[in-house]
Amino acid sequence: MERSGIFIFPPYQNTKSRRLTRRTVLQPATIFKPQDGSLAPEIHFPLQTVMVPDRPPYPRFVNRFDSREILLVVDGSCVNNGRHLREDEAPVGGCSFTFKGTPSISLDPPPTPITFPFLGLQSQEVSGSIAFRLEREGPDGEPVEHTSNRAKLRAVIAALQFRPWDAEGWRSVVILTDLEYIVRGATTWLPRWVKRSWKKPGRSAGKYANRDLWEELQSRIDELRTRDCEVSFWLVRAGDEYESRFIARTKEAARRAARVSPGMEVEKFTKLCGIML
């Protein structure tokens, strides 16, 4: 049986994602439409134990109406976002995603413990909530300024890279977030940005931000699609008819990642890979 745990892959600036240009034929992700819009995400995707040969049972958030669809929860945070607090102090981003919970008979299960991979895994038990600092460099090796939008976008990429979701047998992965920038960007805006060569309207309007991460995300979406696994996005905003504990707890993990000790800082864009988790 394989050894389980989180493995940190070396920076891979030499393995670049496909560049998205005006000639690119782009098929974006889709928007998730709940089968029952009255259900909160944690009710729509209850924690279930998955039984498969050749490995121990493992928990996943599985759609109660579709047994081959799972939920991943993502969030990001940024201290001094936009340098609003201190102009001379660089913003610090934190990213997090939750891919499983702790089985419980309680109707209000306890929060999933948080694992911080870059603080050293020897002293931590790997949980279903992963949190890490946003890297100082993008996947192309270029230095980047941290923002809240970038932290959340990075969390989506990390969640989709973390496991070979298609190999687990899932035919659909739903990304849950409270940020419209992520959902609309991945499903609607990205093709428009690409057609405009990433240029905003107007002569001096500049370019759309985070091109490197959007290209990285689209590459992962395309990769999963070739393996018959679709990616969709579910937007649940604060103030909706139900408050999602999933989002609140994942958001707290991202905030902690942004605020923990300097030992958490990550310079190079790095891939986290969960094995037998």
From TrEMBL:
GO molecular function: nucleic acid binding; RNA-DNA hybrid ribonuclease activity
Domain RNase H type-1: residue ranges: 66-259
Pfam family, one: RNase_H
UniProt-listed InterPro entries: RNaseH-like_sf (IPR012337), RNaseH_domain (IPR002156), RNaseH_sf (IPR036397)
Descriptive protein name: RNase H type-1 domain-containing protein
